[in-house]
Design brief:
Number of strands: 13
Radius of gyration: 55 Å
Structural class: alpha/beta
Distance between the termini: 33 Å
Number of helices: 22
Strand order of the largest sheet: 5-13-12-7-11-8-10-9-6
Strand content: 5-15%
Length: about 625
Amino acid sequence: MAPDHRLPVVSVADVADFLWRRVSIISLTCLAMWGIAVLYLIVATPKFTAEADLVIESKAPLGDTASVSTIVESQIGIIKSESIARDVIRKLDLAKDPEFAGQIGIRNSIARLLGWRKPETEAIAIRYALEVFQRKLSVKRVGLTYLVEVSFESIDAERAAQILNTVAETYIGRQMDAKYKSTFRDETWIKDRLNELTNQASSAQKALEDYYKNRKDMADSADAVDPGAARSQSTTRRQGELRELVAAAEQSTSALDNFRHALRQMDAVQQQSLPVFEARLITEALPPLRASSPKGLVVLGISTVAGLFLGIAIGILRDLSYRGIRTSGQVWRELQVPCIAVVPKVKPQAAWRKLTTVLSDLAEKRPVNLGSLHSQISSMRIGPQSVVTPALDAERRAKRALSSPPSPSRPKSRSIVRAESPIWTITDAPESRFTESFLEIKLAIDSTNRSGKRKQVIGITSTQAAAGTSTVAAALALLLAHAGSRVVLVDCNLRNRSLSTALAPTATFGILDVMAGAASVSETTWTDAASQLVFLPVGNDSRTPYASDILGSEKLDRLLQSLRETYEYVIVDLPPLAPFADVRAAAHLLDSFILVVEWGRTKVSVVARALEACNSMDDLMLGITLNKADLNY
């Protein structure tokens, strides 16, 4: 894939680096969430959950899992039904309980504020209490067993157990009532039908018996009157009546026997196939000893996880908001240039005092002819091939200034002003992270020196202005001097003389005067008494219109060569790479240079363009130093 379309690869090292950089934010968010959690645990009302166990004893055939599940789930639905809840609410008068009638109070308050109010009725109160009741009641099956676990949550432990036991009693009582009513209805119908059939059979049998008795009496009286033809007619009629009576008796008896046989078969079938069940309470609800919610460990665990995610989210947002370079790994990945140090941002302390105070005698300052100085600078810009008058021969005067002793009329040494500046952290806090970062720069310089490449003249530059180049140059020079080396700090940033203003605010003579032959090195240098650091300021207040020509001149080359012979390290403060050509003009005078990049503000593209503009200086590149880093980032 093209580089612009590749997805960013996040390694474990990147994640670890992100967590390390954002550990303070993540810790703060976790502490904040813990504080909210503790406040919630203090303010929240504890709730107690009472539990009871029911068993649904089913007589369904073994292996009929579907029937068992259907029965148990049906009973769970009955326990959670509105009818059971209404009976419990009426029995315990929960509609007047503040825990269940709280919504009514809130609604009435809102209604009063709005100026309208509906009349309160018992039915409405029960409905609101019913909503709260069903929300607090929980019924679930225990696995695939016949056990049903019923629980109820309340702010009162005794109340929770009472309500739950009432629920169980109401449910079991309803099941018993339903079973009794069903059995009673069946038995009543069977009894009535059996009595009816028995009465019919008895009546038919009695009618047959009465017929036999009457037949004998009638036969005796008929024989006495007409023993002949009358007997034949009477016999035929009686036989017909007898057959009817016998048939009726047999039919009634058969109906009764069939009904009794059908009852026996129905009982057998019901006992074998119908899934008859019975519910009973096996564990009575007791008042819980501990609150079920809020659970302290759970709340703290959730708050910890929430704090971690919130801190990570804030860290990611901060990463997205910072579009500049922030880590040494990013420098290497994006630019393929080593990052030799990350210098933290240090605020100057007001308690720091100046170790020395410069008491310059302004009367002894020698005025400088600005016109003559401008002519001398012009001669340096023209170069060695130009012909100049002896009076304006700056080259000859510069040689004399470098070799001549200082004039008795000028002070031999001036003390560097120790004002409120981060550079003095090197000596005031030698174990600070700021000092450690410059020790890393020194280690990088020493490692190149051990490899046989002596890095004596080291330039400090940056990609943009206000990156802290002068601070890095001064702090590095102070560290090297404090370590025992002979070090001179040279301010060659002719466009921004902040370093000279900070360390030698009253300096009148400087590097421009030395190059012009108006002063010697000893007359222009300032010294720190504690570390013996020597500083060569810019000096003259006049502006130099062609700084790149001056930095690339042979006069500066001779000056630096002279300083090489006297000092072990020559630290040169240079202007930014862009948009000026000063550094490229002075590149041939340097042994190496360090590129200062402002942490978090300088974009990768800006640094890349600056490196491309001075690609001829790649061999001199010692590395990149990230300055003004936020260690809490």
